[in-house]
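Justification of computing resources. Each target in the renewal requires a structure prediction run like the one illustrated here; the chain below, 114 residues long, is used simply to show the kind of job we budget for.
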Amino acid sequence: MSNSTKRTYSAYSLDAMHLLGKAIRAERKSKNMSEKSLADRAGVSREFIRRVEQGDMACGIGVVFEIAHIVGIPLFGAEPNTNQLAQHIAEVEGKLTLLPKTIHKKTKVIDDDF
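Resulting structure tokens:
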């Protein structure tokens, strides 16, 4: 995708990122943490923190997850320092073992011999 192509997102995805950004901002402020100190801990710029808090969809998911963890927002309903995420991972891996490893789109053969 080139830089000139604008990516579109579903309303659900936009709302989810907006909610996560606002939650990060609220937790940061409730911990009396400045944008600068959060940026320093996450290894990003203050501007990046602002973009995350505004719900910018172009922010990398890994960095956003790390920022959420730093301010104490549990992801996927799992509290930090518990094995809840490990349990979820094991459940999904178990499901994946029951599903095909690859999906091939079947092409329909058209009989055009008249």
